[in-house]
Amino acid sequence: MLLHRLPGIGDSILPSWEASSEQILMKVRLPRILLGMLVGASLAVAGAAFQGVLRNPLADPFTLGVSSGAALGAASLIFFGMEYSFAGGYTLPLVAFLTGAGTLWVVLLLARDQGKLPIHGLILSGVVMQSFLGAVVSFLTVMSKDTVNQILYWTMGSLSMRGWSYTAILFPYFIVGFAYLWSRSRALNILSLGERQAAHMGLNVDRLKTSVLIVATLLAAAAVSVSGVIGFVGLVVPHMIRLITGSDYRTIVPLSALGGAIFMVWCDTAARSVLAPTEIPLGVVTAFIGAPFFAYLLYRNKKRRREGLA
């Protein structure tokens, strides 16, 4: 398209490029691709941060209920027609962050046992919150008449009909969140040695955990606010990166962003192409990939615990 605008090259050498095709590319295809990259990168980086700060390989925004909490906030605003009520285009991400953060706080509170966060307790608490919040969102969907389709899009996840405005909303959240979490990657490496060892090395463990959880929640909630609930991205991508590069978060964080962007664009392409012209909800595609991977991780962790007790 850019070559077509060069004098003496466009029309004489390259095939004709119609104005309608340019409009489709610039107003439909390109913003959707860029938004998918931002959403995938945000969810993957948030997942890597959750896994690092909780030292739990099964932690991610979806399994901990953060995505469901953020979706409830977004669905509530849509239900009451308040998407742009007090902060313009940033109202939805802000409310999604607050409800997502509240959900994470409840999950951690329920899962904590004598000062520890056992894996099964964390997963069970996340499942409980997902089920409850999903029921509330379903109730809002049933009760709504004018906004039922819009709420359904949020619950199943989609990048359809998302223009440049959605990309502009998520972009600053991603830049700030990614920059901060990457800057704390060395601290996450120290934390991986254990909280007691990290404290002996001079790390303020509580401050690190609080700040990373807040920023990762904001990043995940902002992504959910523009795309709806898309699960397992923050679980699958960081694990694949870790298998390839090792456990250094200075590498995991940036490569998770890259891998998440590629993974999301690939899933969105599959969602549009497999049953074309019918579009599969994006959350369904990621669930088909992520759920078996999640089951594999559960089995592997269970096997390791048995071997450790043997």
From TrEMBL:
Q: Which UniProt keywords apply?
A: Cell membrane, Membrane, Transmembrane, Transmembrane helix, Transport
Please give the start and end residues of each transmembrane region. Answer: 33-50, 62-80, 92-111, 117-142, 163-182, 212-237, 249-266, 278-299
Annotated membrane topology is: Multi-pass membrane protein
Q: Which GO terms describe its biological process?
A: siderophore-iron import into cell
Matches recorded under SUPFAM superfamilies: ABC transporter involved in vitamin B12 uptake, BtuC
Q: Name one Pfam family in it.
A: FecCD
Q: Which GO terms describe its cellular component?
A: plasma membrane
Kindly list the GO molecular function terms attached to this UniProt entry.
Answer: transmembrane transporter activity
Where does the record say this protein resides? Cell membrane
Q: Does the keyword Transmembrane helix apply?
A: yes
What superkingdom heads the lineage? Bacteria
Q: Which Gene3D superfamilies match?
A: ABC transporter involved in vitamin B12 uptake, BtuC
Family listed: Belongs to the binding-protein-dependent transport system permease family. FecCD subfamily.
Which protein, by its recorded name, is this? Transport system permease protein
